[in-house]
Specification:
The protein has 276 residues and is of the alpha+beta class. A hairpin with a 5-residue loop joins strand 1 and strand 2. It is flat, with a radius of gyration of 37 Å. A six-stranded antiparallel β-barrel has the order 1-2-11-10-7-12. It has three domains: 5-115 and 167-210, Translation factors (Elongation Factor Tu (Ef-tu), domain 3); 117-166, no CATH class; 214-276. It has helices at 41-44, 63-72, 122-125, 216-275; strands at residues 5-16, 22-30, 33-39, 48-55, 77-84, 96-97, 107-113, 118-120, 164-166, 170-182, 187-191, 201-206. It contains four helices and twelve strands.
């Protein structure tokens, strides 16, 4: 596992590129994290890093957490995340974790809490078709129908799709493309949508699955290279046309000179014959 980040969802917008491509992006404000503790394998049986994100007032901390941060002599953080890593020798408590860790990455995985919809029926929650909307159905048009069987098994199986609380659950969206990373303003632009409402906190980690799909930046590079090649081709065609024109002019001049010299020679010959 690699280090991750925690960001706040600002909203969605569009990015327009010179190639004419318009990409829908979600903007995340990613505050730099702080390494709180380096967990060694000798003490706990595994090596990991404890990283803190966000700001919180000391008045909102419990006594135990106040003592924990006082012992570390570090600023209190809103979230604490533990990342298991094999090599923790490079990291020290108090060092920052910024967007630089995603410098060479193309895709990331996002984990966040979805928007809560409250108590929802089966048609909204599970896309059921409902019962008939005509006569014969008495005030149960949007009901789910039967849920159980007979005396055997005499129960409703666990996991049956029924009405209930919808949303407000942690979900992971995999393989979101990094369109742009603004290191000065700590902003991350990801292609597509992210679960959750605005101002929700989001976990950002390196993508688990590999993708062979070309990214926006790669397509931009290929677009500019094609532009340059087309410009060079146009220049070469122009140069070839100029050379051809120059050659044609030279041929015309040569033919004119040849035509001027030929009649002069013809005039000289009859005079020489008369003298003889």
């Amino acid at each position: 596992m690699t280090l991750g980040l925690v960001g706040k969802k600002i909203g969605m917008t569009q990015k327009f590129f010179e190639s004419g491509e318009a990409v829908p992006v979600t903007v995340l404000h990613v505050e730099p994290g702080k390494i709180i503790e380096v967990i060694e394998k000798d003490k706990r049986g595994y090596s990991a890093l404890l990283v803190g994100y966000g700001h919180i007032k000391n008045s909102k901390l419990t006594k135990s957490m106040k003592g924990f941060y006082a012992k570390k002599s570090l600023e209190a953080k809103k979230f604490l995340k533990e990342y298991r890593m094999e090599n923790t020798e490079e990291f020290k408590p108090g060092s920052d974790v910024t967007l630089d860790i995603l410098k060479d990455k193309k895709y990331v995985d996002i984990r966040s809490k979805t928007i809560g919809k409250g108590f929802a029926g089966v048609m909204k929650r599970w896309n059921f078709g409902g019962l008939r909307a005509t006569h014969g159905v008495s005030v149960s048009h949007r009901s789910h129908g039967s849920t159980g069987q007979r005396q055997d098994p005499g129960k409703v199986f666990k996991g049956k799709k029924m009405a209930g609380h919808m949303g407000d659950k942690f979900r992971t969206t995999q393989g979101l493309e990094i369109v742009e990373a603004d290191l000065t303003n700590n902003l991350l632009y990801l292609r597509g949508s992210i679960p959750g409402s605005k101002n929700t906190y989001v976990e950002i980690t390196e993508a688990v699955k590999k993708k062979n799909k070309s990214s926006v930046q790669e397509r931009l590079i290929s677009y500019f290279s094609d532009l340059e090649s087309s410009k060079t081709d146009k220049k070469d065609k122009k140069n070839i046309a100029k050379e051809a024109k120059a050659a044609a002019k030279a041929e015309k001049l040569a033919s004119k000179e040849a035509s001027k010299e030929a009649p002069a020679e013809e005039k000289v010959q009859p005079e020489e014959i008369k003298k003889d």
